[in-house]
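Risk register update: the risk of archive-format incompatibility is retired. Evidence:
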Amino acid sequence: MKITVLPIVSKLHDNIRINKDTKKLLDEIETLGDFQFQLSSLSHFYDQPISLILVQSGGSEGYFLEMEPDLKEPYYLLTYGSNNSLAASMEILTYLKNKNKKAEILHGSAQYIANRLSEISTKKIPKPINLGVVGKPSDWLIASNVDYQACLNHFNINLIDIEIDELVDEYNHMDISMYEEETILTFDPREVDKSKKLSKAFDVLTQKYDLEGLTVRCFDLLGNIKTTGCLGLSLLNKNHKIGTCEGDIPAMLSMYLLQKITGQPGFQANPSRIDTDKNEIIFAHCTLPIDMADSYEVMTHFESGIGVALRGKMKKTDITIFKLNANLKEYYVAEGQIIENLEEVNLCRTQIVIKLDDVKYFLTSPHGNHHIIVYGKYQDKINQYMMNL
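Archived output:
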């Protein structure tokens, strides 16, 4: 197995002596396994499946920072017990961990390092899952831009941009005569047909791009095809795919992670009103997954008054609220209880009152407006999962 090694060293140290120490370490490891080390420049560092940053001395942290823009996760820092190599590696590792990067120091006996390299080489990295971004985030989501490469590196999620016109084209060519949806909707048949066509168009895109879910800049559809994505997104979630609206990428990622951790569908909703004295908050939205509703009635989308949306009655039970920040580092999680369903005329269709221990987060440091709500108590499980990423 060929392994590239990129040395970094302070100019204050004796390179001849340090290089001898390096050769001794690498030669010893090579005798313990099927390893062949190749000293590398930065331009060829990732030519092999495993790449090691050899921290040869203290004072090399600055050189690491210079190279950082060209480096990627995971970071393996190879070090040994002289020249303050370990101390410098620990400083670099702390720096990377503070940025939520995947990194590790390889230090100890040659046998330990050889064993660890064998483990790394046999560890299968799962194929990234795909999530679709149909159109860009809505113009009002000014705090929801995500670094696509960071998302792939940290969560193994590949974000795929899809033009909104492609969705519209699929909708316009959709024949739903053979499309059966089990859900019985007593509503304006023309609006129901439009919503079912759009729902099927979502299905076509998920199949075409091998998506586990998507988010849609849905308000653009009001002018293009005179309907909304509310029902289609509800049905996507019912069918164990992720569907979020307004092109909200952090909300989509949050919903995907929640489903992965809990196995539960999630309700994307935004806070509408907060009672700071009672620590109660009203969440509302028009895309409640059908299987999260105890019962529901069919209505139009709230803001536009067109399309098909559901006013669902949710269980009065324990829930967990989760939201990943657009920086992909911070997140919010809290447990609470649904204590009431509302039917106010000036809010999105499904409306719930949630009791929390503290609502200050929403007024002082929220991660955007949309949050994801699941039935059950999962705070500890979510924290454990996020810590282990």
